[in-house]
Amino acid sequence: WYPSGAVKARGPHYHGDRQELWTFFYETGEKESEGEYVSGFESGEWSFWHRNGQLRARGRLDNGGDKAGEWVYADQAGFPLTEAEFLARYPADSLHSWPRHRPPYAG
Questions:
Q1: Across residues 26-35, what is the average pLDDT?
Q2: Whole-model pTM?
Q3: Residue whose C-alpha is closest to residue 51's, from 33, 67, 30, 68
Q4: How large a percentage of the chain has pLDDT more than 90?
Q5: What is the overall mean pLDDT for the chain?
Q6: pLDDT at residue 62, as a whole number
């Protein structure tokens, strides 16, 4: 809980560890992040949002909580900024970035 009384996070505990799906909130109530915990560690697919509700980042965490595989990052308007591939928490050779003034594709 935040000092204001607003919910900071929701999810189950087992034997004192965070487990399964957890959702974290900004103090104003907007969703900040969401993802799975295994034995108290962040694991699996995680999503992070800007305060305005636009996706900020999405990707996978390994069982130790390190970035693994493809991660996508976006600006506050929702336009993709970067895609990165992570191997053992470090960026791999694959990295794509786009200028802030235009999206990488026209839809």
A1: 95
A2: 0.76
A3: 30
A4: 49
A5: 82
A6: 84
CA distance to 6, 42, 75, per residue, from 20 (Å): 22, 9, 28
Percentages helix, strand, coil for the chain (3-state, rounded to 5) are 0, 55, 45
Question: From the centroid of its chain, how far is CA 2?
Answer: 20
- The predicted pLDDT at position 21 comes to 95
- Token readout for 17 is 């560890």
Kindly give, in sequence order, each residue whose CB lies less than 8 Å from that of residue 50, ignoring residues fewer than 6 positions away.
56, 76
Q: Please write down the long-range contacts of 26-35, taking CB distance under 8 Å and 24 or more positions apart.
A: 26/51, 27/2, 35/61
95: its two tokens: 């990295």
Asked if residue 46 lies in contact with residue 59, where contact means CB atoms within 8 angstroms, the answer is yes
Q: Is the dihedral of CA 48, 54, 57, 61 positive or negative?
A: positive
